[in-house]
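Researcher: Let's try something more involved. This one mixes different molecule types, so please make sure each is placed in the same coordinate frame as the others.
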Amino acid sequence: DSGVTQTPKHLITATGQRVTLRCSPRSGDLSVYWYQQSLDQGLQFLIQYYNGEERAKGNILERFSAQQFPDLHSELNLSSLELGDSALYFCASSVNRGFDTQYFGPGTRLTVL
Amino acid sequence: AQSVTQPDIHITVSEGASLELRCNYSYGATPYLFWYVQSPGQGLQLLLKYFSGDTLVQGIKGFEAEFKRSQSSFNLRKPSVHWSDAAEYFCAVGALWEYGNKLVFGAGTILRVKS
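Model: All components are placed in one shared frame. Result:
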């Protein structure tokens, strides 16, 4: 158990819908990262937040957005869902903003029908 | 641009045999290197990491990896594989990105262990 929690574990929804994935980092960690794992793209970095501020953005679609709250938990919002958004979404956390070990949560498996 | 190559998509080894999973990276600065393992339906568990210092690093579950700057490699090894090691293994390089950082992952190597 890494100490990073993610809810829900599974999510099934329809195209065009909007969902919210939630992540709670390890106690003491200030950085939160989101990654997407799909069969065709592999593991891709989406976005990083540090202490409530966006720090780095990767291959995140405009239909996706994220935020980190004052209690340091983070939410990833996915809207206008398409079939291709079906994937495993991981949250990771680390202590610092810069290079540091990232600890991963168990992931949320999103299925878009 | 940063990249990680894991040339072997699948590897099958016999239980008790030695294992080496290959990883090559491309990164302009001093690399921060990681190996993670993912069991079916599970998240990513950190096996080991290299930040600096001794180029041979020890990890959990009896794994070790050696950083070779001249070859841009960070291969993962285990002297004797157990059936429970069957999983997918990911090599990653930490890269500075905008005002933060990110992990760039290889495509993964699926390890099968035969008894």
